[in-house]
Amino acid sequence: VNGQKLSEIINSTHENVKYLPGIKLPDNVLAVPSVVESVADADILVWVLPHQFVARICSQIKSSVKAGAVSLSCIKGLQESPGKIALISSLITEELNSECSVLM
60 with 37: CB under 8 angstroms? Predict the structure, then answer.
């Protein structure tokens, strides 16, 4: 945004000027542009993204997810593969080898 990274703007002004202009975010909200870095010390992973990106994100973060971390999925949709349909929460559970609950 105007030559500055959105994450830097959010962290310095506590406002997402692109998607939530005029709304102040709490001081404890931190924008971390690296998904791998953002999960490193997390006890709970909250999943809110389009379902078609879940497998790729799981493969990116798999080695960085803390042992014992659990997931909460707010994702609609199903994972399709030849001859098989699976819940997105099942995909997360299998890929990260951790529990995943669903909130819909």
Answer: no
